[in-house]
Each structure stands twice: as structure tokens, then as C-alpha cells.
Design a protein that fits this description.
Chain lengths: 230, 364
């Protein structure tokens, strides 16, 4: 798609010449990732709550999502083509199916980690089961859930590049196109940008987690003087 | 206020009943402490009152209404609940924790915030602490927040499961004192579970001593349990030093003090000596128009004309009507006169207590 020149341009020249398409593919990369993680969460959350409340459902749920997780991404995309065609939905289905195992495991671990005493006290004070879930159990599982979201997001950003196989590889398109043409600058731009994207998003999620869970980091310096601290 | 009639609980899969045919009446405004060894079903019994555990048979009523006929969530919101680990919500601030039940039952924000301030003051929690998370508090502070939280909607009934067990003995004693003080003015109906008989003796209006399997061995005020344990189990459970523990429960005001040898400062030395002989002591209290000045002994009187000439020495310790007989005993064994001198406000002399008098109280 990008004409081979006799004297290949420098990476800087190439980048500035293609700023528009770089930007739009980065945006596409972010979009594919966000949709995959959000849809993944929307599926994982109810499944996790189910698995948490009915312990015997946990093994089959992790077995199925584990199976999905082990299918090589290249193969999964190809297998989906006859079903869903060359649309971006095909990529999304693949991406979403890879998020489930890690998200479900983390959410369930987070929910199971809520102290029995806290649940007992909350129930004893008159929380309904639903209030207990939404106001106590899920908020307290947030650190584990965000940890799962961070891992999934980073791995999804990497996986999106494989979407080139059906023409929706976003930044991955640069990599495959550069490889096909033996044009290194393009490969480097595609690879560096996807790694940078992963790092930035991971950092943003870390900030989000800290915002959501101020209670996990006691502020020692704010302790009151010992005189009234009994 | 709370009534358990032939209540039993058998957990699925266990051969023996956790609680077997237990009947217990708890009056309004009374602190009843359930105490017993582990496996005696004391916690199970308490948890059946707010339906965290449902009885296998029998009836439990709170304020005349059968708990099994009520919505468990509504029932629980009307009963204060404190557990050993307190279970403060770690992701909520102190103020939000205290506001838990008011929020559940739909109080408006202003009312909630007023109530939070009020309770924080009652429990001497610094207002600055409102925005702290539980992880930022000391054990004792968490305990107080937990009790404050349970009192937030001013429920008439409180259930407390070893609420002071997780803190060190000094803090525990302070929390118990605060509990007695607050309960003295609130007069809630409290069911309090502990394995510590001394805590039970200190806090209870009545103690229910349970044996393994939820068998009620004795249900009586602490003083009676110490004076007349129903059987060997109770005697063993109450432990040694029953006499001392009883002394700690009886106030000086509850018994008749002895007159003791007394003279006025203007009295003659002969009069002072007559007083000593009358009581068989070798010292005499000097009292001026009701006010206790101190005591003098024979050597001090030698060479004096009146009692006032001999310098009266102050007693090293006094007891007042509010002190316990145990404090009086301490005064007896540590003073050189071997008596406890009882005074009221302004050093007014009321009389003395001797070891004989105390042992008479204990053995009668």
C-alpha cells in the first residue's frame, strides 16, 4: 500500500509523511482494545458473581474460558472468518474471548477475599444480599478486579496486532506491511507505538485504581497524636 | 424484651445440638452476658436473636414479636450488632461506617451527619477522625467506632459478641468502663457474649452460664453466681478467688460500717485511751465535728495533755461509699492500722471496716 522508493526515507521522514494514518490506526487500536475489555468485563462480571455464589459453577466456567484462552489467536481469527466474515466484530470476538479467563479469575479471587467478618457485620446490620454485593463485596474486590483489567488490557493491546490477518490489525498493519516490504521504519513505528500504548494505558489504570481505592493505603502521617489514640 | 422459649439449634451434619432446649428471659434495659466454654452455643444463641442463624425449634420474641415472623433485614436494622473483629467496612470512612444503618433505613444527610457528630463525641472520637479509613485507626478506636455504629439508629436492643476481646488488657478495661458509663445512661437491652467470666462479672446485670450443647447452668446476677454457684460446673467456671471477685462487686455503701474508736481533738488523753480499750485497738481516730483529722497511737499520746497536743497522723488511704469492698480490703491489708477508714465528701468520718467485718459479709 505504501510505494517502495529507491532510497527508503528515514524513520522520521516516514513518520511525518504518514502522521494521519498513524494517528487513525492508533485510535483504531485503542477502540478495539477498549471495546474488547469493556465487553469482556460485561460478560465476566455476571459469570464471576454466579461462580462466587455457587462455588460448583466455578470449575466449569474456568474450564471453558481456559479452553478459549489456549486457542492460538491466529487460528481463532481464521476459524471465525466463515462465521462472522472479515468485519472488525470478528477480531472483537477473539479479543473478548481471551479476556474472560483472567477477568473472571481476578473478580472471583477479589470477591472471595472479602473478609467473612466484614460480611457478617454487614449482614447483621441489615444489608440485603444485593446491597452486600454492590456496596461491600464488589467495592472491596476492586483492587483484584483492576489488577485483572490491567493484565487483560495490556495483553489485548498486543493481541490486536494479530488482527491484521483479517485486515483489522490497527498498529499491527504497520508491522506486517513493513515486514512484507522489508521496510524497517514502518515495523519499528508499529511495534514501538503498540508497546508505548500498553505502557501508557497500564499507567492510567494504575492511577484509576489508586483513585478508586484510597482505603488500601493508610496514611501513617495522618495518625492522631497518641494521647487520644486508644 | 427478649424471650427465648425452648429454643434449640441443630446444625446439619452434626450429631449433637449446638443449643438444646434453651429458655431465657431478658428484661428491658438489662445487660445479660452469655458466658461459657467454647462449644457452649453462646454465639449461636445470640445470632438466633437477629436471625443470622435460624432456630431448629422453639420461639424467640423481641419486644413481643416472633422474630421468625419478621423480615430478617428489617429485624436486623432495628438491632445493634457488634462482633469481635468489629467488621468495620474497610472501604468506608469512620463517618460512613457509623452512618451505615441510618443510610440503609433512609435518613436524610443532615440528620445522619448530626447523629455521626453526636456519637463521635459520646465515644470520645476526635472529629478529625471522621474521614479516616478503619486501617488508619488503633484497635481501641476501631472498637469504639464499631459500638458507635451499632448505636447509630438508637436501637433498643444490642447484640455484642466478644466486642472487647481483640484489644490489649489496658484498652479493654477502659472500653469496659466506657461501656458501663454509656449503658448507665442509655439503658439498652444488651445481650453480650464473652468467654471471660471476669468481663461477665464486671458488665452483667445477669449472667447466663452455658455448658456445652447450650445447656443453661445458672442464670443470676453476678453476685449471686459468686455467692451461690448452682453446681460444680459453675463453681469451676467461675474459678478461684470467688470471694475476692464478690468483694469487687459489693459497694461499701451496701454494708453497715463499724463505729471504730473516735475522739475529739479537745478530749483528754484518758478519754482517748478509754476509747482504744473499748475497741481493743492501740490507736484512735481524731474527728473534729465530723471531719476526720487523722489518727494517734499510745506513744504519741504519752506526755500530751489533750489529744490535740499529740499530732494526728493522716491515714494513708481512705475508702468512700462508692468504692468496692475489694478496694476496702486492699486498704485494710496495706494500712498500718489494719482497718479501712470510710469517709464521705469533705473527709466526713463514717466509720471503719475491719477484716472480720468483710469476711462476715462474704461468709454469711
Amino acid at each position: 500500500m505504501i510505494a517502495q522508493e529507491l532510497h527508503p526515507p528515514s524513520i522520521w521522514r516516514w513518520t511525518s509523511d504518514h502522521a494521519g494514518v498513524i494517528l487513525s490506526r492508533t485510535a483504531q487500536h485503542v477502540e478495539l482494545t477498549v471495546i474488547a475489555v469493556v465487553v469482556g468485563l460485561a460478560i465476566s462480571l455476571p459469570l464471576s458473581i454466579l461462580a462466587y455464589r455457587h462455588g460448583r459453577l466455578y470449575p466449569p466456567i474456568t474450564w471453558i474460558t481456559g479452553l478459549l484462552y489456549t486457542i492460538p489467536s491466529l487460528a481463532l481469527f481464521v476459524l471465525l472468518i466463515p462465521v462472522t466474515g472479515l468485519r472488525s466484530a470478528t477480531v472483537e470476538i477473539g479479543l473478548v474471548s481471551y479476556t474472560l479467563l483472567i477477568l473472571i479469575r481476578n473478580i472471583v479471587v477479589g470477591l472471595r477475599g472479602v473478609s467473612a467478618d466484614v460480611k457478617d457485620a454487614a449482614t447483621g446490620m441489615g444489608y440485603t444480599r444485593r446491597q452486600l454485593l454492590w456496596r461491600v463485596e464488589l467495592p472491596m474486590a476492586v483492587p483484584a478486579i483492576v489488577a485483572g483489567v490491567r493484565v487483560t488490557t495490556v495483553s489485548t493491546i498486543g493481541l490486536v496486532t494479530v488482527g491484521f490477518i483479517i485486515g483489522h490489525g490497527a498498529l499491527g498493519e504497520f508491522i506486517i506491511d513493513g515486514l512484507n516490504r522489508f521496510f524497517t521504519p514502518e515495523v519499528i513505528v508499529g511495534a514501538v507505538l503498540s508497546v508505548a500504548l500498553a505502557l501508557v494505558v497500564d499507567a492510567l489504570l494504575l492511577v484509576l485504581e489508586r483513585r478508586l481505592t484510597p482505603w488500601t493505603r493508610p496514611r501513617e502521617r495522618r495518625r492522631l497524636p497518641a494521647t487520644r489514640a486508644t | 424484651m427478649i424471650s427465648l422459649r425452648n429454643v434449640s439449634k441443630r446444625f446439619p451434619g452434626s450429631r449433637d445440638a449446638a443449643v438444646g432446649d434453651l429458655s431465657l428471659e431478658i428484661h428491658e434495659g438489662e445487660t445479660v452476658v452469655l458466658v461459657g466454654p467454647s462449644g457452649c452455643g453462646k454465639t449461636t444463641t445470640m445470632r438466633m436473636i437477629n436471625r443470622l442463624i435460624e432456630p431448629t425449634s422453639g420461639t424467640i420474641t423481641v419486644d413481643g414479636k416472633d422474630v421468625m415472623q419478621q423480615d430478617p433485614v428489617e429485624l436486623r436494622r432495628g438491632i445493634g450488632y457488634v462482633i469481635q473483629s468489629i467488621g468495620l467496612l474497610p472501604h468506608r470512612t469512620v463517618a460512613q461506617n457509623i452512618a451505615t444503618v441510618p443510610k440503609l433505613v433512609g435518613w436524610d444527610d443532615e440528620q445522619i451527619s448530626r447523629r455521626v457528630d453526636e456519637l463521635m463525641e459520646v465515644f470520645s472520637l476526635d472529629p478529625e477522625m471522621k474521614d479516616r479509613y478503619p486501617a488508619e485507626l488503633s484497635g481501641g478506636q476501631r472498637q469504639r467506632v464499631g459500638v458507635a455504629r451499632a448505636l447509630a439508629v438508637d436501637p433498643p436492643v444490642m447484640l455484642m459478641d466478644e466486642p472487647f476481646a481483640a484489644v490489649d488488657p489496658i484498652v479493654r478495661a477502659r472500653l469496659q468502663d466506657q461501656f458501663l458509663e454509656i449503658q448507665g445512661s442509655l439503658r439498652k437491652t444488651i445481650v453480650f457474649v464473652t468467654h471471660d467470666i471476669d468481663e461477665a462479672i464486671k458488665l452483667a446485670d445477669r449472667i447466663a452460664i452455658l455448658n456445652v450443647g447450650g445447656v443453661l447452668e445458672q442464670y443470676a446476677p453476678p453476685e449471686q453466681i459468686l455467692r451461690a454457684p448452682a453446681d460444680d460446673f459453675v463453681k469451676d467456671f467461675v474459678g478461684s478467688e470467688r470471694g475476692l471477685k464478690r468483694l469487687a462487686l459489693i459497694k461499701v455503701s451496701a454494708i453497715q460500717v463499724e463505729e471504730g474508736p473516735v475522739v475529739a481533738p479537745e478530749a483528754s488523753v484518758d478519754e482517748a485511751k478509754r476509747q482504744m480499750e473499748r475497741f481493743g485497738f492501740d490507736w484512735v481516730s481524731v474527728v473534729n465535728d465530723g471531719e476526720l483529722l487523722g489518727w494517734v497511737d499510745r506513744p504519741a499520746l504519752d506526755g500530751s495533755r489533750t489529744v490535740a497536743d499529740a499530732k494526728a497522723r493522716p491515714f494513708s488511704a481512705y475508702v468512700t461509699a462508692r468504692d468496692s469492698l475489694r478496694q476496702a480490703l486492699d486498704s485494710i491489708v496495706t494500712s498500718s492500722t489494719n482497718v479501712a477508714v470510710v469517709v464521705s465528701e469533705g473527709q466526713r468520718y463514717l466509720g471503719i471496716l475491719t477484716l472480720d467485718r468483710l469476711s462476715m459479709e462474704i461468709t454469711q
